[in-house]
Amino acid sequence: MPVALAGLALVALVTAALWWRQRLRNAALQRQLDASAAALQELQQACARLAPAGVVNRLVADGASAAMDLPPQRKVVTALFIDLVGYTAMSERLDAAELARVLNGYFQRMSDAVHEHGGHVSTYLGDGILAYFGALRPNPWQCNDAASAALEMRAAMRRYNDELAAEGLPALGVGIGIHRGPGLAGMFGSRERMEYAFVGRTVNLAARVQGLTRTHGTDILVTDAVMEELDAAFLLDPMPPEPVKGIAEPVRTHAVRGRATTAASA
Prior knowledge:
Elements: H1 3-48, H2 53-62, H3 64-68, E1 73-85, H4 87-91, H5 96-116, E2 120-125, E3 128-133, H6 142-166, E4 173-189, E5 194-199, H7 201-216, E6 220-223, H8 224-227, E7 234-238, E8 253-259, H9 262-265
Parallel strand pairs: 4-6
Antiparallel strand pairs: 1-3, 1-4, 2-3, 4-5, 6-8, 7-8
């Protein structure tokens, strides 16, 4: 083989070897990038269970310190408080694993109803759930969304009770209180643990209204502040004013019977 051809062959061989080596490096880097992206997505999904998506996204983009330093804001928010009825009797007859399964089924169905209507589940309090509408972003229809979520919760509990009955388990009920008012939204807590929350009298009154569901023998109650913002399609029954702890004046509430169809409301 002439020297010139041998040299060209050698150059071609070296070039091919370098190209193949670089391709292997690129493939290894791509695998690392894919693994990092998957780990980041998994972390975001895990964090989303503990904080709103907006807070998680800022934490990922700007770092933990920036997310923790989100300035608090005064907002008008609709708070929904739901409590489980019949839990005590059920807890006395089920073992721990079975009871946890039933509770988790309840939590999942109620949380789904909140999320489907644009709300945010803030926290679980025993067998109760505190959710907000309009806390994370402006929502002029927050009262309608909260009431719609409550009606979906009612329907979901009926379906869930059918499942429980098929297993020979007693039916469960819920009491839901909804109130709209001002408060402070932001990151609250200690150095060891922070969470996004909405604090103020609005939350307390929503919990008190939930307690009135047993007094009035109904499952969904809204205050005057919510009633004034609701669409006319919601069917409401006024309840007599009742005194509640921490509130000077008796609280007027309205039972949510249902929602009329579009044709009927028109």
